[in-house]
Design goal:
It contains ten helices and six strands; from the N terminus they run βαβαβαβαβαβααααα. The chain is of the alpha/beta class. A six-stranded parallel β-sheet has the order 2-1-3-4-5-6, sandwiched between helices. Helix 1 links the parallel strand 1 and strand 2.
Length: 228
């Protein structure tokens, strides 16, 4: 899902850190980000352990995180960063197109998954989208995720009770799983966007999930929605 988010002159910039073991890539991305309106790179780290420390120290809005790094992998760093800075949104920016890495990233709380051949415009847009509470993955990886959804929705087991959710939260979860953003959900249910955000936050907490993408996986696995 791609959402254009206008930046006002007095809006606070989205604070970003880049965690990648390739120094040339980090420096190049930082330079390119400097030309993007409303984005500010506030730190860099060259490995997972340093990335965790940096995130805890500067509390960024968005973390661009490589999957495969020395000392601590990006997946492990993703989990640790979400624990240290729960409000931070994480985008895995990697050369890995392995399905396993994608699924582990989603389960670890990543809100985005982009391949490094993405354009700077795509990366900047992804940062804005996840900072607004949405999710975004590279189109080629989205196909793999949909295939996984289809396998999950095979009728080999019955649905699991969702008694922990209210009827409204369950309704919001179904719409999230259908790919609707907060604005579209608000229109569909005739409620405000802030109310939608509150419902999403509450259902994630109740289900002990870390991101909207993980909520989609949950909804399909538990047969709350099915992929045709």
């Amino acid at each position: 899902m791609r959402v254009s988010l206008p930046q006002t002159a007095d809006a606070e910039p989205i604070r970003v850190i880049i965690v990648d073991d390739q120094e040339l890539f980090r420096q190049g991305l930082t330079m390119l980000m400097a030309a993007e309106s409303g984005l500010e790179v506030v730190g860099q780290a060259g490995d997972g352990a340093s990335g965790i420390e940096l995130a805890g120290r500067v509390a960024p809005d968005v973390v661009l995180l490589d999957v495969r790094m020395p000392k601590i992998s990006g997946i492990e760093a993703c989990v640790a960063i979400k624990e240290a800075v729960p409000a931070a949104k994480i985008i895995m920016l990697t050369v890995s197109d392995e399905e396993t890495d994608l699924y582990e990233a989603v389960k670890s709380g990543a809100s985005g998954y982009l391949l490094k051949d993405s354009s700077i415009d795509e990366v900047a847009q992804a940062i804005r989208v996840v900072a607004d509470g949405q999710s975004l993955i590279s189109p080629s990886m989205a196909v793999k995720l949909i295939d996984e959804f289809k396998q999950m929705s095979q009728p080999d087991r019955g649905p699991v009770s969702t008694f922990r959710l209210t009827e409204r939260e369950l309704e919001v979860l179904r719409l999230v799983a259908q790919g609707l953003n907060n604005k579209d959900i608000a229109k569909r249910l005739f409620i405000s966007e802030n109310t939608v955000k509150n419902h999403v936050r509450n259902l994630l907490e109740k289900l002990q999930l870390h991101s909207r993408m993980e909520a989609v996986l949950y909804a399909v696995r538990e047969k709350i929605v099915e992929i045709p």
